[in-house]
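Hey, I was hoping to borrow your eyes for a little while. A protein chain has come my way and I'm curious about its shape. Take your time with it, there's no hurry, and the full record follows here:
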Amino acid sequence: MKDKIKKLFDKYQTEAFIFAGRTETFYLTGAGFDGFWILAVKDKIYAICSKMIENQVKEFFAGQDIHIYIGAPFTEKAAEILKENETYCVLLDPRYINAADHIMLNSKFSDQKIKIETKTGLLDELRLIKTSGEIENLKESCRIVSEVCETVKRELRPGLTELDVHYRIIELFAKYKVKESFAPIAAAGKNSANPHHASSSYKIAENDIVMIDLGCVYKGYCSDLTRTYFLGKINSKFMEIRDIVKKSQNAVLKEIKAGLPFSCADKTARAVIDAAGYKDNFIHNTGHGIGIEIHEMPSLSSNAEGVFLRNMAVTVEPGIYLNGEFGIRIEDTVLITDKGCEILTTAER
């Protein structure tokens, strides 16, 4: 944690940081529980928690040079710590602090003449590059989701509802002792034309299309996988669209590597789909970063700024959606390497 926080002090001109969100505290400390803040000044790190998790915090940080403050509200404790350290400027990410705490901080800190500065994405740059431990967790998360996907594929049959598939995915995750990273999507028939369809009581029919989008969380790290299947006699239009989407995804997977711009992924995927005549039917970005959160930086859009670096984890997920007919999306989680990318999700495409 100290190395990460030192990098932040080297980058930002501030006297202190507050990290209030579960995502932030997990990334910095590895603690698998929330309900505490991390406050860092130049030479000290504090954990602020309530009596309710005092024992957990003390046990987790035992032997570490972390100062623990017990009590609520956290805003008052933070003000006390900053005053003790003669610190009058603090930086935080507004995405990870609720409105009520932000209001209380402003009120309490103004009394102490402490300036609050905000910066969206304080930890994003650090989180872009995955460590070896993070990569192992991502790989295991992807292994589990791939196995669950293959099981669900074998069990698909006419008569099941989308909700049957949805809850079967959750049931299988429970057997692996993992949680879903987002609500699983099961979209059949015309519903598959909606990229983020909410699973319903629609019954899968004979010769029907079924799109499933699923992900799990292993030791705090997410996976993301989408497959689109056809039950029964496959029609020619489905085959045509599926082949275009697969060609689009394969072009991206073949091209991306460390050093190339983020935007190349979207432009490459879109070029294939545009050339096939379905320009207006690819209605989302080609992918996104993934890690502690299901959607992280970078965004794989046509105007994204920045370049791929080794050990970034992203999804590649082109799709074509024909309103009133069906949609097809193929999505994989991949790890960027110097020479290309490693596909972490292995369910048959």
Summary: The chain has ten helices and 19 strands. The mean pLDDT is 96.
